[in-house]
Amino acid sequence: MQTKKLIERFHSEIQVNYFSIRLQLILAILIGNFFCSPSKFLVFDERYSEPRFYLYWFLSSLITLCVLYAAHVFNRFMDKKLSWLTDFKPRLIGQIIYGLLLPALLTTVFVLLVFLPLTSKGMDAIGPYIRNEFRFVFLFIFILNLLFLLVYVIRFAKFVKDQYVEAEIEKTELKELLIEYEELQVKLEDGRMEDVSDTVMLAPCLRVKYGYEDNYVPLSGIAFIKSSADDKKLLTLTSSREYTHNYSLDTLMKILDHNQYYLMYRRYIVNRSIIKGYHALENGVIRVELKPNFEQQEDIFVSRQDAADFRRWFEMK
């Protein structure tokens, strides 16, 4: 179950970029140069002396670029429908049919449509050329599919590594947070914080900073949390005072009450008590409207994918 969730998260968050357009262009020029010679269709020794060679080189490169780009789009489409990790057999079948055989046949058709009108010898020249070069076309597309699979596996491995590191960081942060909380409880029990109200003493607290001073804020008193540009978090309380801390939003969501707090766009955590209402926009995104005391905060949105879940959460009694 853990592996399946990891794979689903990989496909929801990562769109594998197999080959950049610059690399596709360079490959197209090199392979176009290779495939437009040597045969009777274009004599290798004389090709650079004939102006038409450069036209053939350009057209061959254009065909190759179209095949590369189409293969790139096809693989990204298939990643959403049939993952190599969860649907290996159907993905392999689809890859052979639509990622190998069909591109090879389409390349042959493109060559016929593009070059047949340009030679006076017609099929007598193009026929031998295609028979001679088709095996190289097929081999090239086969290698291309293997490269796509290799890039996919490498990208997934990097994603897993990043998730592991992130989980370890969150685990450490959460452990530090719990230790600080336990230390605070010991201090409270020892009577070292006599000036703290009974409400704060009984409530779980979060260690934060106000300027250079350490403070302890009850979790139930947090109204709004957001990620700032410098990767620190700002806690806005009902008193409109802001505190800084270094805990990640994911770590805080593990200790906050999910019935009272909602994580939005992975940038904000908002307390239900400060939400005045919400409005659905034309694209399915929800704009959250805060109560007057917090109107100075930037606009907060809920993504289209999370819109239904947010409505259920907000309307829950």
TrEMBL record:
Membrane-spanning residues: 21-42, 54-75, 96-116, 136-154
Coiled coil: 157-194
Keyword field contains Lyase: no
Top-level taxon in the UniProt lineage: Bacteria
Domain HTH LytTR-type residue range list: 212-315
GO MF terms held by the record: DNA binding
InterPro entries: LytTR_DNA-bd_dom
Keywords assigned: Coiled coil, Membrane, Transmembrane, Transmembrane helix
Keyword Transcription carried by entry: no
Protein name: HTH LytTR-type domain-containing protein
Lineage per the UniProt record: Bacteria, Pseudomonadati, Bacteroidota, Sphingobacteriia, Sphingobacteriales
